[in-house]
Amino acid sequence: MKRHVLLIGLPGAGKTTVGKLLADRLGAPFVDTDAVIVRKMQKPIALIFGEEGEQKFRLLEADAMKAALGGPPAVITPGGGWAAQPGALESARESAFIIYLRTMALTAAKRVGGGGTRPMLVGEDPVEKMRQLLKDREPFYLQADCEVKADVKPAAALADEMALIVRERAGWST
Known about the structure:
The protein is α/β, with parallel strands linked by helices. The chain has helices at residues 15-26, 33-41, 45-70, 88-93, 105-112, 126-141, 155-169; strands at residues 4-8, 30-32, 75-77, 96-102, 146-149.
């Protein structure tokens, strides 16, 4: 039976970029929960954080994930902090194959730049903040069904590697 493919990891790990490529390779829908929230709220994530706080954002994120997991099998990419929310991974595990895109804090920080659109990074030293996020979140990320190293390979090669894994382990036959 085909399961959702859920990509987790730090901001800048490549979840959205690789997720779109993976969805294309699988012929699957692609759901970026941050994009769903932006469309619903008609404002960027940073503004939601600023005006309504992280708690409100996390509620919106939980709703977006619930809707995505309730839909047809898809490649789903939540924000980097979703996996560390109480019960999040457990709620997804039944219907989703979870892949951790593992990246070093330095690589993730370089990819997100100054973090201007990333509320958890605004006003912080990106490398230090990313190290702290990794320390806090990696115990959750490591609960994934598998992990791929997302530091070195280009996005297309990662998508190819993950497509093979998903076809073998998550019911997505060729």
